[in-house]
Design a protein that fits this description.
With about 300 residues, the protein is mainly α. It has 13 helices and 2 strands.
């Protein structure tokens, strides 16, 4: 009997990692896709941490007040879009730096979330329903691992749609043109300001929904530390994915799996190195930044105007 329990315990590790990959990867997926859209236009949004927190707070508050988690998801998206509109306008003013605006938006978005979210820390809001793909099994651990959020499936669909959008649509061409060569886009009669505003707002809308995945799915609560730096990690994730929406999907799953490693090992009683395993996403982010910032290595897929004042 002990051997059976031990076998089940070790089997729980890959199951927990699989479950954590889908759960923890969902916010990364939406935030990275939003940042990919923003950076394709030649702008960078470092304020996504504030957007993620504001989205999480708005989703939880609206879900609690209306008893509808899906209205909470919409509220999170629109809250993110509102911050994106501020960021998009400020970052395109003369002699304004993207990084400075991003830092200011982290502080502003976090402050908004903390101020309006105070009354909703204790109440329990309705959570998003899950799709149970493990009903065929009598194994509770497998059933738990295969409980999938509809938001994860929506993110899976958005990634190829966004890739097609960049490759095959007129607006996708405009965004890539503005991001790669603003002068050429201007010669085509494209409004750089409008295209970038659209990109930043739409990207922030997706990031806000990533916040809803945190508060209404996993971990499914509202606290002031719920994002744990995922908004900033998404910037490194997009670089790692080479500004490709499909690669953003795989990179998000990688980050989600790294985030699940610590809890998975803890579930079978492994306490040694617990904090080190919990730091896996941050270590992965650091390694990606070191690897991609090498002066001897050129980045493929990087928008030509990214990081410039044009």
């Amino acid at each position: 009997m002990a051997d059976t329990s031990q076998a089940i315990g070790w089997l729980g590790v890959p199951l927990a990692i699989i479950a954590g990959t889908m759960r923890g990867g969902t916010p990364f997926l939406f935030v990275s896709l939003g940042e990919c859209l923003t950076e394709k236009s030649g702008k960078i949004n470092l304020g996504l941490e504030g957007t993620l927190l504001t989205g999480a707070m708005a989703a939880y508050a609206v879900s609690y007040l209306t008893n509808s988690p899906w209205l909470g998801v919409l509220a999170a998206g629109f809250a993110g879009a509102a911050l994106g509109a501020i960021h998009g306008w400020l970052s395109q003013q003369p002699r304004v730096n993207d990084v400075a605006v991003g830092i200011a938006m982290i502080i502003f978005g976090s402050g908004v979330a903390f101020f309006f979210g105070k009354p909703f820390i204790q109440p329990k809001a309705p959570q998003l329903p899950t799709i149970n793909l493990g009903e065929w099994s009598d194994f509770p651990a497998l059933q738990a691992a295969l409980q999938i959020s509809p938001l994860f499936l929506i993110g899976l669909a958005i990634a190829p749609i966004m890739a097609w959008f960049f490759r095959s649509t007129r607006w996708g061409l405009f965004i890539r043109a503005v991001g790669d060569s603003p002068e050429a886009a201007r010669a085509m009669g494209v409004s750089i300001f409008n295209v970038r505003m659209f990109s930043v707002i739409a990207g922030s809308f997706l990031a806000g929904i990533g916040g809803a995945a945190l508060s209404l799915y996993y971990p499914g609560l509202w606290t002031e530390r719920i994002s744990s730096g995922q908004g900033l990690m998404a910037v490194a994730l997009v670089i790692f994915a080479r500004w490709n929406p499909i690669m953003c999907l795989w990179a998000s799953l990688l980050f989600g799996g790294a985030q699940a490693l610590g809890p998975a090992l803890q579930s079978i009683g492994i306490k040694e190195g617990y904090y080190l395993f919990n730091a896996a996403p941050y270590v992965l982010t650091l390694l990606i930044m070191i690897f991609t910032c090498s002066p001897k290595r050129t980045l493929s897929g990087v928008p030509g105007a990214l990081g410039t004042d044009s």
